[in-house]
């Protein structure tokens, strides 16, 4: 009985090890230079482009797996390759103001293997109604 239990522990040890590693990597730390941006005043129909710079300040590679946005008017680009410790990266956000006006306050969630994931990014500003109707 004891040898059977020992056999099971040895046989499934790699499975338990890999499962724990795939969720969050200990030591992976994502630090944004500025997680809140204000794009000021723009006219309706303009596309606002923002960049969020970050640095891996931890001791393990960071893998960004997904970025969640709250509106189809927002698109993102992010590094698909692991960001090694000490390296910097950028998340590019485009906000299409077509059919949007007045105050805008949007959030984005960055899903990664870093400690504290998801990280929230925010941008806001005012979209002025286009009086010409174009």
Question: What features would you describe in this structure?
Answer:
There is one protein chain. This protein starts with a helix and ends in a 6-residue tail after the last strand. It has 134 residues and is α+β, with helices and mostly antiparallel strands. It has one helix spanning 2-23; strands at residues 30-32, 36-43, 47-56, 64-69, 74-77, 88-96, 102-112, 119-128. It has a four-stranded antiparallel sheet, with no helix packed on it. Helices cover 16% and strands 46% of the residues.
Main attributes of the structure:
134 residues, alpha+beta, four-stranded antiparallel β-sheet, four-stranded mixed β-sheet, elongated
β content, as a range? Answer: over 45%
Write the element-wise H/E pattern from the N-terminal end onward.
Answer: HEEEEEEEE
Mean pLDDT comes to 86
**CA(first)-CA(last) distance:** 79 Å
Shape: elongated
In brief:
This protein is α+β, with helices and mostly antiparallel strands. It contains one helix and eight strands.
